[in-house]
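May I ask for whichever protein you like with its backbone structure tokens?
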Amino acid sequence: MNSTERLTQTFTLQDGRKLGFAEVGDFSGTPVVYCHGFPASRLESVLIAKAAERQRARIIAPDRPGYGLSDWMPERTIADWADDVTRLADYLGIERFLVLGTSGGGPYGLALAAQLPDRVKAVGIVCGLGQLHGTEAMRAMRWPARFGFGTARKARWLLHLIYGNVLGRLIYREPETALSLLTVGSPASDRRTLSRPEVKLALCASVREALRSDMKGALQDMVLYAHDWGFDLGQIRMPITFWHGEADVTVPLSHTLALAESFPQAKIHTFPGEGHFSLPIDHADEIIETLIESIRH
């Protein structure tokens, strides 16, 4: 199987849905299930492929339902992700694995840890989105995020009108424009990272792939993020590590600090000057190495 084929794999779940996934890194290395951000897809894993190879990690990055090559699943929950990942791991013949969730993949990474204690050995969350329901986390975000998640919570019809019919089409046609908007008000570290041609190319491909069918998956995620996540963080007992940039304006550091309160034994790594994109991309080697090392102690 060549590298392109490894990025476009699919298999059929028990309910007949198709699940798409990519594999990058060292294919004989430590298995790591990667939960992509929002709105993104399995192709986001390309950004950490070289680091994964150096750290001897096998990154397995599935598309969530409604994104990329994965069929949409009506009425799903964040906790339901554990069932899909279980089937994927069984399909690949992997019994136990690590989990790495980035940004909007953070809640899904935590769901895997909570729902699959016998299969997840450790979890790492990078610049992870915090709980927006019943917390102050949303107030710390910039106004576009506050508006979007507030609409997802209170007016789904408006969410579909604005994001589904207008912004979604714009982002799909012009992902470069969406990336340029992300640099407004972002720290210098993010602006530098997003200006690199290879990063821009990979992120644009990931976003365009995420919306290849429609906005259903992304809109569904916005609603799920804005409500109770539907699983108990207190169930998580395996090693957990958080990484967050102190200059992150997309998902503020306060999100990670609030989440970490549920895990007294969690390791928290903060990085002065690093943002939402510079941290997971430029520190990928350190992140993967630390995650693997967390199961050796």
